[in-house]
Each structure stands twice: as structure tokens, then as C-alpha cells.
Design goal:
By secondary structure, this protein is α/β, with parallel strands linked by helices. Helices cover 34% and strands 19% of the residues. It has four domains: 9-94, no CATH class; 98-160; 192-362, 3-Layer(aba) Sandwich (Rossmann fold), CATH 3.40.50.300; 368-558, P-loop containing nucleotide triphosphate hydrolases (Rossmann fold, 3-Layer(aba) Sandwich), CATH 3.40.50.
């Protein structure tokens, strides 16, 4: 029955339609972000979905069923279907029905349920039963030794998330304190939202804290938050990063912003093997093995230190083999840092059960309004396919179509226009295909960084870019993650990894560090019109759309010769 036609949301079963042209669009979008997942975002409506995992993450962050239902009622055009209200209450109610606790009798770890039927159900489930040792009473079963992680993983897959309150083993003590003035002589202190993030993770040392994921925009200082957690916990720490350059940025930040002795910070990478009170390692070294038949040679690093805390930087990139090791590390405090919980392999539930649920999330646009990250203007420039490629494209299979359209040589002319337009800016040209990037290098003479570029050479090129001696830099997907280039204020994306939403978010993140003056950055995505390149670009933009970014869509002839702004075909169009 109609309720209020002026409101922006239509609730249909587990699907939510949000009207973008409605004056209440932004308020409703921000409300939905706490408990629903964006599925697609055409121009006039955004489509969200309520999923068990999105509701369980909300529950772990303190959302009740009524707190979720309230904004749905506030912004819904029509009465909410009864089955949706029932589902929300049921799924939210499942979080906490199963608790993992230390056995008061000292026998190990126990699973306790609030009702006897649930204990009976899970005790007889084929994937859970092998992980249980014995029944203690009608509400409680004893886990087998070492089954803490696998039990949580098995239970979430059958629809029962576990609230882990079993506590943690202490690691070796480490005295480390945050500085009020950095070693570089600048005033330093955690920003309020950074303090809030550390508090949400630590929970004053309570067993309800100590494991979980903090979700913040690129450029918001996730490394600083991780350092804040180290200073709060005061125990030996293992930090896992995406690559050696990111590892060394962590080292530099630790030494600059805490009173730790530099000799107590170790690097464990392909080049150096040091184990120190704070050890920084890469995912690559952990997953290295000579061939598929051999064991991972460096996984033993998890057991080689008395770690009181393990930090997983860019946790959405955690490799699958590391999940198996993480399942055995549930007695250690775990902290995941990321800009997005999205994983392209669909293992979000593994992150939830093995690293921990989402403990803190702050919308990108909130920090932009507060001036902590740059205002980014996103522009999709649609280009025609080169005439000589039209026939090869027409007869190619789907994968080949995407590559042909992605490497469209017409993009070179547009890059030239954009470089001229931003002659005084720091420009990153980012792409997926090495041959395409090498062609861009030959045409423009800018340095290039790929996976084959040695670490020392990478660091020199990055430093040249930072100090302004080089204003244009070409990078492959190795620069998607954890690279600190604070002066970068323009990205030109020439190709991407199919429909990877997390990659799009990470690439935008390269230019979100606060900027002097107008605190503004430009993100350009060059897309071949009416092609698979355009189709996948729409998918890549989904996460950023959920965060409130809008892509202005223009044609190639709208790129101005001087910095007098674009003549947009369509103002603020979102993923047509």
C-alpha cells in the first residue's frame, strides 16, 4: 500500500532500490552503507542487497535489528514487506547465538549456544562434527584442540557466525609509544577517527576486542592506525604487507612516529630475513615455494616469534594459502586494515571468521568533507575503437574483446591531451597490460614501474616523483596497493582488471592524500565506447559509487586544450 511517494527507497524482498534523483538520496545512501551491499548502479536507481554477511558485519559493529529497520521505514516509499523484517531480525539474531569461550574447567575451548536445539543441530552437521570433542551439557560442546579457526569457518558457511570471546595468548612484551613530535620534527597525534578506530578494535583489552577489520579510505592513514594498535597492545608484532615497497613505508612510519629503536624493526622479504620485535613481511614471501608439490618455505614465520599481534595490511588481498595458516592462529590478536571488504574470490566470509568481523567503518565522503582526504573528481572518457581494430574485435571471443578494447591505441591521443592539460600536476598513468604501458612509455618517455622493476629502482623512481623531478609516472597494477605518493593528484587509468571493484577503489586511493590549496584531485578512466571495456568499467565503479563518488561521462572531444574545465556531455552520470 503506498506510503509516501516522495521518499527514495523501494524495498522488494531482500533487494533495495534507491532513487538517485531524490533529494534524500545521500542521506539514504549513507544509512544503507552500514548494513547493505551495492549490487549495481545505473543512472536513476542503485540496487542494494541485504545479505547474511552484510547483516552480521552490522551486528558485530553494534547494529540491532531495529536500528536497521528504522532507516528503511524512514526512507521507504511503501510499507516494508513482512518477510524482509523477519529476515533482518532472524539474521541479526543469529550473531551471538553461538559463542566461543575458554572452558572454565581449563579443558580447552567450548562452543556455547543459547538454545539446546542449535547445539544439537551443529553437533550433527557433517562439516562441524569432526571438529568437536565431546558434549559437556545441553548448551555446550568442547572443541578439539587447534580447531578454533576451522570451527568458526565451518559454522559461518552453514549460516551461524560465531562470536569469539575465548581471549588471546599474550606475546612478548614491547614498550613502544607514539611521539608527539615526529623524528622529522612535525607535530603528531592520532586524528579523532583514527583514535576511534583503535578503540573499536581494542575495546580496552576486553575479549570482545582483539580481532577484526578496520575499513577506511585510502589516504586516511591506515598505517598510522596500525601503529596506534601496536602502541596500545605493547607486544611483539608481525605486520604483513602487499610488497617490499609498502613494507619499507611501514618501517619508515614506525621509526618516524614512535620511540621504537630502529634496530627493533626487522624486514622479512625476498631480500632480507630478519626477525625482530616488530617484523615486517610480505604476502609474497609467505606464499613462496619452488613448485606446487613443495611446502611454503616461510609460513613458519608465524611461529618464529612470540607475536602478540598480527596485522594484515590490505586484508582484502590476503592470499588463500595464508588463510590456512590464519586458521591456526586464532589465539593471537589479529587486525585487518583495508579500504574495502570486497574480495574478487568471494572469500569475505573467511575474512569475517578468521581475521574478525568489521569493527569500524567510516564513509569516504565524510573524511573528504572534513578535509582529511582529497576531493576527487571522477571522469570516464569514452573513446571510439580504432578503425583497424573493428573487425578483429567483432570476431574475437569475450576475453580477447576486452583486451583489444582495453589496449585501444586511440587512448594514446587522449593521454597526450590530459598530460598537456595537467602539465603542472603529478600524474600517474595506471594500466593492466604491460605491452600497453611500454607503448605509452615509448611515446611519452616517462619512467615505468612493473612487477619486474627491482625494488631499489622502484624506490628511486618513487622518490623522483615525490620530489618533483619527475611529474609523470607509468605504473602497472603493482602500484594498486599501499604506495605512498602524497603529491600525486591526477590518475589516468588506461585499463583495468575486468570488473574489479577493489582495484578501482585502490587506484583512486593513490591520489586521496590531502592536497594543498583546493585539496582536489582528478581521476580519469579511459574507456572504449560500446565495448567490453565499457561494460567492465561500469562494474569496477560500483564500490566507489556506493561511497558517494559520481563519474562524469564525456566523449573524447570534450577534453579541453587548457585547464578551463570539461564540457560534459552528461553532468554527474553514474554508470549508465
Amino acid at each position: 500500500m503506498p506510503n509516501n511517494q516522495n521518499l527514495p527507497i523501494v524495498v522488494q524482498s531482500g533487494n533495495l532500490l534507491l532513487e538517485t534523483d531524490n533529494p534524500l538520496f545521500e542521506a539514504a545512501r549513507d544509512a544503507l552503507a552500514g548494513f547493505a551491499e551495492l549490487e549495481k548502479s545505473p543512472e536513476h536507481f542503485h540496487y542494494y542487497k541485504l545479505t547474511p554477511l552484510s547483516l552480521w558485519n552490522a551486528a558485530s559493529a553494534g547494529w540491532t535489528a531495529e536500528k536497521i529497520i528504522e532507516p528503511l521505514k524512514t526512507y521507504s516509499k511503501y510499507d516494508i514487506p513482512q518477510n524482509v523484517l523477519v529476515d533482518i531480525r532472524e539474521y541479526i539474531g543469529r550473531y551471538g547465538r553461538l559463542q566461543l569461550l575458554a572452558d572454565p574447567a581449563g579443558a580447552g575451548l567450548i562452543l556455547r549456544a543459547k538454545d539446546t536445539v542449535l547445539i544439537a543441530e551443529i553437533s550433527h552437521h557433517e562439516t562441524v562434527r569432526p571438529l568437536l570433542q565431546k558434549k559437556i551439557d545441553s548448551h555446550t560442546v568442547l572443541l578439539k584442540d587447534g580447531a578454533r579457526g576451522e570451527a568458526k569457518r565451518a559454522l559461518i558457511k552453514i549460516g551461524y557466525p560465531v562470536e569469539d570471546l575465548a581471549g588471546y595468548e599474550d606475546g612478548e612484551a614491547l614498550e613502544v609509544n607514539l611521539r608527539e613530535t615526529t623524528r622529522g620534527g612535525k607535530p603528531f597525534g592520532l586524528r579523532q577517527y583514527q583514535q576511534d578506530a583503535v578503540n573499536a578494535y581494542h575495546v580496552s583489552g576486553d575479549v570482545s576486542g582483539g580481532s577484526g577489520v578496520l575499513v577506511l579510505p585510502c589516504g586516511a592513514g591506515k598505517t598510522v592506525i596500525g601503529i596506534g594498535a601496536i602502541a596500545r597492545i605493547q607486544q611483539h608484532t608481525l605486520v604483513l604487507t602487499t610488497n617490499t615497497v609498502a613494507l619499507r613505508q611501514w618501517r619508515d612510519e614506525l621509526i618516524d612516529k614512535t620511540d621504537i629503536d630502529p634496530e627493533m624493526v626487522g624486514e622479512y622479504s625476498g631480500e632480507v630475513k630478519q626477525i625482530r620485535p616488530v617484523t615486517l613481511a610480505t604476502y609474497q614471501i609467505l606464499t613462496y615455494r619452488k613448485n606446487r608439490e613443495e611446502e611454503f618455505a616461510h609460513m613458519e614465520l608465524f611461529d618464529q616469534g612470540k607475536w602478540g599481534l598480527i596485522i594484515y595490511d590490505e586484508v582484502h588481498m590476503l592470499p588463500a594459502p595464508v588463510f590456512r595458516a590464519v586458521a591456526d592462529l586464532q589465539a593471537r590478536r589479529r587486525l585487518g586494515l583495508t579500504a574495502t571488504l570486497l574480495r574478487e574470490d568471494g572469500k569475505e566470509d573467511d575474512v569475517f571468521s578468521l581475521i574478525g568481523p568489521k569493527k569500524f567503518d567510516v564513509p569516504w565522503k565524510v573524511l573528504e568533507k572534513q578535509g582529511w582526504i582529497a576531493q576527487a573528481l571522477c571522469t570516464e572518457i569514452r573513446l571510439p575503437l580504432a578503425p583497424e581494430l573493428k573487425m578483429p574485435y567483432a570476431i574475437a571471443d569475450l576475453k580477447a574483446k576486452f583486451r583489444i578494447a582495453s589496449e585501444n591505441p586511440v587512448k594514446l591521443e587522449c593521454i597526450e591531451q590530459l598530460i598537456a592539460l595537467h602539465a603542472n600536476d603529478h600524474v600517474l598513468i595506471i594500466g593492466q597490460y604491460i605491452e600497453q604501458l611500454e607503448e605509452i612509455q615509448r611515446k611519452f618517455g616517462a619512467p615505468i614501474i612493473t612487477g619486474k622493476t627491482p625494488t631499489k629502482e622502484r624506490e628511486k623512481i618513487y622518490n623522483d616523483f615525490r620530489d618533483g623531478s619527475q611529474r609523470v609516472l607509468i605504473v602497472s597494477k603493482v602500484a594498486n596497493f599501499a604506495i605512498d605518493l602524497p603529491d600525486a593528484n591526477v590518475v589516468i587509468q588506461v585499463s583495468g582488471t575486468f570488473g574489479s571493484r577493489q582495484e578501482e577503489a585502490q587506484r583512486l586511493g593513490r591520489i586521496l592524500r590531502p592536497k594543498p590549496g583546493d585539496n582536489q584531485a582528478q581521476f580519469y578512466s579511459l574507456v572504449t565506447r560500446e565495448s567490453k571495456d565499457q561494460d567492465f568499467a561500469a562494474k569496477r565503479q560500483l564500490f566507489l559509487t556506493e561511497q558517494g563518488y559520481r563519474y562524469s561521462i564525456v566523449s573524447e572531444d570534450a577534453v579541453p586544450a587548457e585547464d578551463d574545465g570539461f564540457e560534459y556531455d552528461q553532468k554527474e552520470v553514474v554508470n549508465e
